[in-house]
């Protein structure tokens, strides 16, 4: 009986300590690591949320770019940080991809990071060179099927989301295409314009100028529904039923962080993502605001890891 009493008392004490820790959180600045360089879309979104969360929680959110190794430098730093909610990473699909893509990692992106919530999700735009005699994704599929092995596509690197989304598309549509990796979309763009490469998956923004001048064509988007900004542009799913692939941004902490702390961060992040002004700003980036509960975020990341693992396997891509 005494042992039971001691166990109950110890459990109550632990719960009380956890609750007290959560109530005190945060009592110092929170560090947010970016997997990309400063100045891009990820940086803008991360700071947009960080500023409002800082105001709500009463502590500074210090956003720091830590690019390199396909996002692994930033993600590993958070995975190995103290599990207390004071070190976060603004993650992308690399969280779900890198465990399958990289041969040797000293951490597991899915197991060692704790999803808090997505902030935004967006489909890839499917661009084609204006030199191709096609105007939509259905026409492209027919054109490519008639020319197996003769069509190539650009990406921003082996194992990138733009590479693997194209792999999933080719597999689902039954196409044989050749992958041509580049260091970035700026390097790929001239070859897409000239017709040296025929297709690429990427975000809307970086190629908007070429699209406006008619040097490239927008054939489709890779999401489940049409974009408000491009209502006449079909989805891939309209020609390849069930197809759905895209990029996303969200906050992650260290696995093992007390759930109460993660919930506090989730509550404030979701409030930011649901704010009408933020929703409008996100939609103007051709993205969708995507607030999630902790459980929804965990389920989403697990499903993404499974999907991108299949794509990595089909592509044969590996990284050191």
CATH architecture of the largest domain: 3-Layer(aba) Sandwich
Structural class: alpha/beta
Strand order of the largest sheet: 2-1-3-10-4-11
N- and C-termini, Cα separation: 57 Å
Q: What summary fits the major beta sheet?
A: 6 strands, mixed
Mean pLDDT across the residues is 91
Features:
320 residues; alpha/beta; D-Maltodextrin-Binding Protein, domain 2; six-stranded mixed β-sheet; 45% helix
Description:
This protein has helices spanning 2-24, 41-57, 72-79, 94-101, 109-112, 137-145, 161-173, 185-194, 208-212, 259-274, 276-283, 294-315; strands at residues 30-34, 61-65, 87-91, 113-123, 125-129, 151-155, 177-181, 199-202, 216-221, 246-254, 288-289. It is of the alpha/beta class. It has two domains: 25-122 and 246-315, Bordetella uptake gene, domain 1 (D-Maltodextrin-Binding Protein, domain 2), CATH 3.40.190; 125-238, 3-Layer(aba) Sandwich (D-Maltodextrin-Binding Protein, domain 2). The strands form two sheets. The chain has a six-stranded mixed sheet with strand order 2-1-3-10-4-11, with helices on both faces. Strands 7-6-8-5-9 form a five-stranded mixed sheet. Helix 4 (94-101) crosses helix 12 and helix 7 packs across helix 12 (294-315). The chain starts with a helix and ends in a 5-residue tail after the last helix.
């Amino acid at each position: 009986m005494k042992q039971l009493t001691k166990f109950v008392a110890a459990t109550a004490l632990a719960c009380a300590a956890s609750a007290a820790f959560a109530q005190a959180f945060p009592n110092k600045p929170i560090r947010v690591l970016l997997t990309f360089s400063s100045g891009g879309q990820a940086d803008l979104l991360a700071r947009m949320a960080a500023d409002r969360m800082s105001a709500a929680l009463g502590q500074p959110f210090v956003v720091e770019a830590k690019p390199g190794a396909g996002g692994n430098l930033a993600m590993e730093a958070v995975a190995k940080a103290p599990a207390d909610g004071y070190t976060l990473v603004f993650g992308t699909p690399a969280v779900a991809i890198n465990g399958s893509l990289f041969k040797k990692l000293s951490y597991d992106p899915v197991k060692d990071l704790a999803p808090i919530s997505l902030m935004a999700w967006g489909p890839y735009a499917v661009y084609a060179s204006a030199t191709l005699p096609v105007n939509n994704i259905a026409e492209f599929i027919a054109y490519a099927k008639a020319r197996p092995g003769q069509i190539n596509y650009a990406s921003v690197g082996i194992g990138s989301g733009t590479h693997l989304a194209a792999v999933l598309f080719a597999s689902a549509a039954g196409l044989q295409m050749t992958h041509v990796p580049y260091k970035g979309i700026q390097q790929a763009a001239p070859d897409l314009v000239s017709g040296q490469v025929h297709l690429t998956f990427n975000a809307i923004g970086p190629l908007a100028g070429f699209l406006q001048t008619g040097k490239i064509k927008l054939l489709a988007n890779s999401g489940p529904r049409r974009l408000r900004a491009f209502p006449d542009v079909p989805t891939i799913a309209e020609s390849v039923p069930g197809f759905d692939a895209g990029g996303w941004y969200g906050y992650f902490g260290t696995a093992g962080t007390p759930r109460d702390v993660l919930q506090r961060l989730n509550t404030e992040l979701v409030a930011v993502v649901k704010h009408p002004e933020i929703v409008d700003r996100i939609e103007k980036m051709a993205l969708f605001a995507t607030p999630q509960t902790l459980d929804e975020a965990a389920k989403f990341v697990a499903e993404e890891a499974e999907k991108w693992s299949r794509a990595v396997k089909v592509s044969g891509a590996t990284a050191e």
